[in-house]
Amino acid sequence: MINLYTILITLVISSSVNTPAEPSSRNVAEIARYGLTGTIKSVFVSEPYLYAADLYEGLRIIDISNPVNPCEVGFCETASMALDVCVSGFYAYLANWDKLSVINVGSPSNPHLAGNCKLDANNVCVCGNNAYVSSNAWEDGFKVVNISNPSNPVQISTHPATAWATDVCCGGSFAYVAASYVNMGGIQVMDVSNPQNPVEVGYYTAPEGPSGVYHCGSYIYVAAGGAGLRIVDITRPERPEEKSSCTTPEDAYSICVEGSYAYVVGDMLRIIDIKNPEYPLEVGYCDIEATAVCVAEPYIFTAEGENGIGIYENLVLGTEEDNIPVPGLKFFPSLNRLGYRINGKAILTVYSASGVRISTQTVDGNGFWTPSPELPDGVYFARLEGGYEETCAKVVVLR
């Protein structure tokens, strides 16, 4: 894995900066596109298959064992609008607008309907014997469906949402419901240890209405529209606390976390390094529009509506040769410049406080990075890549 050395640098410099136009992608390569006649709203990967919610058609199953040459192997029509999909074991769970459909995918070439549960459903996730469903309703925006008998899924409880419920995820004894109305909203933390009586135990207020939430470890990662990525510590479920954020120039709509990276989509695909959740940094992007994203590293799969399914590679995940440790790598922060000593080559990248890349250069041996006089006053991040280890530090530079 690439080594990351992050330095927080505060610069007090006069004048403005003329930022060159960004290329259409960085550290992301499109390797395939699977076109369909329908409209793909959501994707879920359970290797070697990808499961796609096709809005007006139903469930499509794509063989991605060779990501460069994906091929459809199965299809199950549903008589409603397929909005989201989750797979657990031999079953796919399709949020079908006016019902939750349970589809047997034990034989991917012959998927067939096992059962339906009549309810409003926009998003779905599965933990154990229960499916958690969100819908665009305040009075019962969160629902729990018992799926222990796939042929007879039964709704066993509901709970009001604080606004329009836009997404749901789960982990352990908790479910997390994204609720949004206009530019307001947040994440409801639901204790589902008793699924017949879910209880809201905590709430995170987002700076803008969130449309996506993903649980991983001690954090939830929130796609908060124009407020970008928000990283929230849920160690204490009753008091979720935002630890950090990474601004995206466009609205963040959906999110997936895999390994050390968060993948955010909306009007762009952005890859954000979250090795240190307190200092997230954007490391890659691609100019695409997508409504959902799922990852099986190094590959990224996106739901792109009428453009079908996009398949991309995260080039930040280096080859074994790229990951050879660089011994003797050190930083020497000082006033108005950042010194480094490297026994080998590395890549030094500088970002603004909002995560926008300012410059990238290859460095070797001993040297200094000096802020350009054209840079405006503000906080900047320096990132050094080359090896396995990781360290962070803060430096103040004044002029």
TrEMBL record:
Domain of life, source organism: Bacteria
InterPro entries found in the cross-reference section: LVIVD (IPR013211)
The name this protein goes by in its record: T9SS type A sorting domain-containing protein
Native source species: candidate division WOR-3 bacterium
Lineage of the species this protein comes from: Bacteria, Bacteria division WOR-3
